[in-house]
Amino acid sequence: MRYPSPDPRRAEEYRAAGYWRDDTIPELIAASAARAPDKIAVRDASGATLTYRELAQHSDRIAGFLAAGGLGKGEVVTICLPNWCETVAVFLATMKLGAVVNPVPVTYGRADLAYVLDKCDSHALVFAGKFRNADYTELLSAIPDSLAGRVLLRIGEGGQALGTPWAEALEHEPLDTAIEVSADDPIAVLFTSGTEARAKGVVHSHNTILFGERALADVLRIGSEDVAFMASPISHTTGFMHGVVMTLTLGGTLSLLDIFEGARAAGQIAAHSATWTMGATPFLADIADALRASGERLPSLRYFLCGGAPVPEALVRRAMGVGLRVMSIYGSTESPPHTVVYPSDPAENAWLTDGRPLAGITVRVVGTDGRDLEIGEIGEEWSRGPNTFLGYLGDPELTAKDFDADGWYHSGDLARRLSDGSLRIVGRIKDIIVRGGQNISAREVEDYLMAHPAVQSVAVVGVAHPRLGETGCAVVVPRPGASVTLQELSD
Fold first, then answer.
1. CA angle 328, 400, 368 (to 5 degrees)
2. Average pLDDT, the chain
3. Which of 2, 65, 193, 338 is the most exposed place for a label (fewest CB within 10 A)?
4. Tell me: the pLDDT tens digits for 339-371?
5. How does DSSP assign 86-109, residue by residue?
6. The domain over range 434-490 is classified in CATH as 3.30.565.10
7. Which of 146, 132, 137, 41 is nearest to 86 (CA)?
8. CATH 3.40.50.12780 at 210-384+407-431, yes or no
9. Where are the domains positioned within the chain?
């Protein structure tokens, strides 16, 4: 697999400034384990827990299992798992081998999984046997060609005996050979939807991820004593970077929820004494409503970071009414959160702005001619910093389009700068529907629906939604003499 490389000029600049270092993610987690081996590293909604010592042991054994299957440095492990303790162990095992983590949502269907496995040339696939109403052994058995030659590891039972069971892999001899890994090596491929017909594989290194997490932790004053609550999927940038990586490299504790429901989330935050969380507006709305209904409060929770879409004033005020401190945050998978409302900022900045840039990250608002616009003028938001991605997997032309030679990532979002240095996102150039903080490519959905033999034409548009902010609406025209149902289009 050939990955995009860091630009030598950027690398030299960022190293000279101390932004890029020699630490790797597994080394920093190992240091956390050495400092407090018996501290809980991860716990989930099932009641399962892993101390830092247990996380190290489990990940060593899974790394040994994957290595025995031929997995080597730079090869991809696609991971389709919910927010479970085992998921974190797989992430760490992959990193210890110098391999590349490719987390994908549990909402992926057969076509999505087949596409990602092929695009990444994944050496291994780790999946749940069943989760909610989905049986992944049945789903994957329907795409045998996409599984051929890959190591398959299954967590939990399904209708088919597909892959090696988790318990068996945990009995494997642990990895006993240290793998030499550079902080500039690729460590993650995270897929994100855009205006293109297919999701793009965003490649990050240890350094691009770690800089952003250090910068965010510094602003929020998050450290080893903190407990992060994550209902946001750890297959997504938010959960993977800010939940797993930030928490474990700092030596904190990560509390995971796999099936979100407002009262359940509020109860877990209280039970685990979580000190901060991050999620899209539906997470905030449902937790605030649950607290209002129960009369309970979350005194341990200092911050609720909310991103993915502008946060309505009415929602922030509702959350404030039940004791939640809301701070908006903005970024993308390519340039992970690079602006945030600081703890010292006025409360109203949560709905009036999308935050101020983190230290070391530069933000511009530019016109169609590429010139910087004055305060208050609307243009495209560009960002540059040590947190920006290396490029898109296997797509140099697309990389050059979105990520220019001077290191500026062109977001496609419309924004204006405010007098206090904050940024406000006001719209999108790209044809994307933001549903509850998740980017959905209208064109990708249109292409999927057009593949149905009964469909003549289709148009997908975004429509307002009271809880999700926005949702998709498809207008479908059947072929003459044909008919099609919603169920048929969903299969």
1. 65
2. 94
3. 2
4. 999 999 999 999 999 999 999 999 999 998 999
5. HHHHHHHHHHHTT-EEEE--TT--
6. no
7. 41
8. yes
9. 25-181, 210-384+407-431, 434-490
